[in-house]
Design goal:
The complex is a heterodimer of chains A (597) and B (177).
Chain A lengths: L5 E6 L2 H5 L2 H14 L6 E6 L11 E4 L3 E3 L7 H10 L14 H4 L29 H6 L4 H9 L2 H11 L11 H10 L5 E7 L8 H8 L1 H15 L1 E8 L4 H16 L15 E6 L9 H8 L23 E5 H13 L1 H4 L10 E8 L5 E6 L4 H8 L9 E6 L5 E4 L9 H7 L7 E6 L4 H15 L5 H18 L7 H15 L3 H5 L2 H20 L13 E3 L8 H5 L5 E2 L7 E2 L9 H5 L5 E3 L1
Parallel strand pairs in A: 1-2, 5-6, 5-8, 6-7, 9-13
Antiparallel strand pairs in A: 1-3, 3-4, 9-10, 11-12, 11-13, 14-17, 15-16
Helix pairs in contact in A: 6-10, 6-13, 7-8, 7-10, 9-10, 9-11, 10-13, 17-18, 17-21, 18-19, 19-21
Chain B lengths: L15 H14 L8 H12 L4 H11 L3 H10 L11 E6 L2 H5 L2 H12 L12 E6 L11 E3 L2 E3 L4 H20 L1
Parallel strand pairs in B: 1-2
Antiparallel strand pairs in B: 1-3, 3-4
Helix pairs in contact in B: 1-2, 1-3, 2-3, 6-7
Classes of the chains: A alpha/beta (597), B alpha+beta (177).
Bound molecules: flavin mononucleotide (FMN) and FE2/S2 (inorganic) cluster.
């Protein structure tokens, strides 16, 4: 028998847990015991590896063999074949050369792996997020120690400023400048806030970053506290993320017991601690002034700026708010230096950006690429392209505040300015790929419905304006669009953009305006020809039963409004006046006899 | 905000949940900026009761010396807080972008047809309630629903019917015991 010591990693991210990873652990231990391998194998957990659609994931080291969609029944085979006989199991191994397995071959000091580059996520999937020793062994908290012993607060700020780091929460404000402004304020105490509200529906970067490597965020915040002279930090995190909440809590506690948080950190005279505050499902609370109100226990309403939180923030004190990803970059900048950090990225946007790639793309998951990578590289090289050989229609970035970029913009490099010029925004990192099966008017309506619902109601342009826009869009998708509606939408949109109180309203029209700009013909078809080319808008489609019908009667039975008639074994027909276009018959028919038109 | 002093009534019923909540509130009151912990207290309440019962909110008002109107204001502002009791199995259907482009509305239609309820409603037998969610963070598995604490992903109209059936079966079994 050829038995070498193995280290097995089970992905313990939300998606993998949901697909049953936790059950594998028990089965694995049992098998290891049976083969007498318990002492020769370590089994560890890791945060999200970014291959959420292939979970549960099990990695066998050395060799970095990655197994996907592993079930309990596969475990005996894996143990027997791979661990006992040293023969990796081809049947389950994920072998294609894409997103998932590139970075596994370069654990540790990864530089480049294909188109990806992991700076913020450098430890995700590599360390056990609930084990502080794992983090420490990869130079964890060394940056904090360096800042406290070798650097003055001014030097820390100067380093961050020199690195050219910009906020990853959406707006891209230079982080160093924000810190400098706050540090210059006289009022005390000062506060640090980590924005982990992640309200963009269709994005999960911050959740995965915290689940995979919570200590990085804690360390970044402590360094920030030292730089601006704050002793208290808050993590504002969505209540919808129970696992991330547990992990960050655990990280804070462990750091505290290790003397890395609390009084006199590492023997210096700097004291800093972190508390957790839970969000409660309000998109607007991602906006910094609304977030502050929410931390204060109030309704999360924004207020006009200035004064900016840097001057008047939490409890009226100077406050630095940064996004999770921004914080996660800090230890790297301090440790590896601004000069190195500046080598990654473009002229105006330094470093990397994490994206949650989802929608109609082969590899959905979490990716991190250097700024300047093009959308095409992300979607085709990293994401593996569009499934079922369909055509891409648009890439949506920035969520409800962003825009839809059609194919001709796919060579746009990812940085704050280029995306803005193309008519979208960087946003916090949601990237949804849309194919020809989606109707752009419907997508615009979807986003507006979201922002309309999330509008806090404080200012009129946003509260009323988005409602009127939504009415018009709903009318268009219902086939009742009027000539002139497009122009009305443009006028309203421009007005709301200019007149709203906070970023929510100011950016709410973006999805509509960008789809009008890039897909105007689809709007026109809806209004003038009463046609929806993607066959999504119910009122604009009809169902017909064709020749393939064998008269089985399945459609007749499921039709909720009895619009289908026909004798057994003869071709059925649909009464178009009665039909409500629910699509039940279409989904039920086993003979592809029903056509959507 | 001007605070009115609310007279503290003697707690009406003393049960375990109330005692636990009261302990939590008392702990929060020792902290700096005690009022700012209101949202934490509401989270704890919902955790204990499954929703925010009116009479408990009154009791929180007294215990924390915060006007009930303010508490209502906060409770109704946030989507996460529920003011009516949920069904035994709470279905949160994700209407986030990833799920939307992958056909969440179709799944919604099937659930509605199958259970004869809309958002914010509960089935007559108290088994299922339905609510929308904004991205459950499982976009890789879109479209998804969360039932209780479990995520069911990569749904198709057929699969969701199957899932619902299984919950029904499970409830039947539990009743049988
Ligand atoms: C409507 C709205 C929603 C926002 N949501 C988020 C969010 O979910 N996460 C985030 O980090 N920033 C969000 N922001 C941006 C914050 O206001 C703020 O700019 C950011 O947290 C600053 O951190 P950064 O400089 O590190 O990006 C949002 C802004 C607006 C207007
Ligand atoms: S959009 Fe449904 S889980 Fe993210």
């Amino acid at each position: 028998m050829n038995v070498t010591p193995y280290r097995i990693i089970l992905c313990d991210g939300t998606a993998c847990i949901n697909s049953g990873s936790r059950k594998l652990a028990a089965a694995l231990q049992e098998q290891l015991a049976q083969h007498g391998l318990t002492d020769k194998t370590t089994v560890g957990l890791s945060g999200c590896l970014g291959m959420c659609d292939k979970g549960p994931i099990l990695v066998v080291n050395p060799g970095y063999t990655i197994y996907g969609r592993v079930t309990q029944d596969d475990i005996p085979e894996i143990v027997e074949e791979h661990l006992v006989h040293g023969r990796p199991l081809a049947r389950l191994a994920i072998q294609e050369d894409h997103l998932y397995n590139r970075f596994f071959r370069v654990f540790g000091d990864a530089k480049f792996f294909g188109k990806q580059m992991r700076i913020t996520l450098r430890n995700c999937g590599i360390i056990d997020p609930e084990n502080i020793d794992d983090y420490l062994s990869l130079r964890g908290y060394e940056a904090l120690a360096k800042a406290l012993t070798d650097m003055t607060p001014e030097q820390v700020i100067a380093e961050v400023e020199k690195a050219g780091l910009r906020g990853r929460g959406g707006a891209g404000f230079p982080t160093g400048r924000k810190w400098k402004l706050t540090a210059a304020e006289k009022a005390a105490p000062k506060y640090i806030i980590c924005n982990a509200d992640e309200g963009d529906p269709g994005a999960f970067m911050d959740r995965s970053a915290i689940e995979g490597d919570p200590h990085t965020v804690v360390e970044g915040m402590a360094i920030g506290g030292y730089a601006i002279g704050a002793q208290q930090g808050f993590v504002y995190i969505r209540a919808e993320y129970p696992l991330a909440i547990r992990r960050i809590k655990r990280a804070i506690e462990d750091a505290r017991s290790a003397g890395l948080l609390g009084k006199n950190i590492l023997g210096s005279n700097f004291s800093f601690d972190i508390e957790i505050r839970l969000g409660a499902g309000a998109f607007v609370c991602g906006e910094e002034t609304a977030l502050i109100h929410s931390v204060e226990g109030m309704r999360g309403m924004p207020r006009p700026r200035p004064p900016y939180p840097a001057a008047v923030g939490l409890y009226g004190r100077p406050t630095v708010i940064n996004n999770v990803e921004t914080w996660a970059n800090i230890p790297v900048i301090i440790l590896d230096g601004a000069n190195w950090f500046r080598t990654v990225g473009t002229e105006t946007s330094k470093g990397t950006k994490v994206f949650a790639l989802a929608g109609k793309v082969v590899n959905t998951g979490l990716i991190e690429v250097p700024m300047g990578t093009t959308l095409r590289e992300i979607i085709y090289d990293v994401g593996g392209g569009i499934p079922f050989g369909k055509k891409i229609k648009a890439a949506q970035t920035g969520g409800p505040s962003g825009g839809c970029l059609p194919e001709q913009y796919l060579d746009t490099p990812i940085d704050y300015e280029s995306l803005a010029r193309a008519g979208s925004i960087m946003g916090s990192g949601g990237m949804i790929v849309i194919d020809e099966d989606s109707c752009m008017v419907d997508v615009a309506r979807f986003f507006l419905e979201f922002t309309q619902d999330e509008s806090c109601g404080k200012c009129t342009p946003c509260r009323e304006g988005t409602k009127r826009m939504l009415e018009i869009l709903t009318r268009i998708t219902a086939g009742k669009g009027l000539p002139g509606d497009i122009e009305k939408l443009e006028r309203l949109g421009t007005m709301i953009r200019k007149a709203s109180l906070c970023g929510l309203g100011q950016s709410a029209p973006n999805p509509v305006l960008s789809t009008i700009k890039n897909f105007r013909e689809e709007y026109e078809e809806h209004i003038h020809d009463k046609k929806c080319r993607a066959k999504v808008c119910k009122s604009l489609i009809s169902y017909e039963i064709g020749e393939k019908c064998i008269g089985c009667g399945a459609c007749r039975r499921v039709c909720p409004v009895s619009a289908i008639s026909g004798a057994a074994k003869t071709r059925h027909t649909i009464d178009q006046d009665k039909c409500v276009r629910c699509g039940m018959c279409f989904n039920t028919c086993k003979f592809e006899a029903i056509a959507k038109g | 905000m001007a605070k009115t002093q609310l007279k503290e009534k003697t707690a009406p019923v003393v049960d375990d949940k109330r005692i636990e909540l009261r302990k939590f509130i008392d702990e929060m009151k020792t902290k700096e900026h005690a009022d700012s912990h209101l949202i934490d207290v509401l989270h704890r309440t919902q955790h204990l009761y499954g929703y925010l019962p009116t009479e408990i909110m009154d009791e929180i008002a007294q215990a924390m010396q915060i006007p009930t109107a303010h508490i209502w204001g906060v409770a109704t502002f946030y989507h996460y807080f529920k003011l009516t009791p949920p069904g035994k199995y709470e279905i949160s259907l994700c209407l986030g972008t990833a799920c939307y482009v992958k056909g969440a509305t179709q799944i919604l239609q099937v659930i509605k047809d199958e259970l004869k309820i809309d958002f914010g409603e509960m089935t007559d037998d108290g088994l299922f309630s339905l609510g929308p969610a904004r991205c459950l963070g499982a976009c890789g598995l879109a479209p998804v629903v969360m039932i209780g604490e479990r995520i069911h992903g990569e749904l198709t109209p057929k699969k969701i019917v199957q899932v619902l059936k299984e919950y029904r079966k499970q409830a039947g079994k539990e009743d049988g015991k």
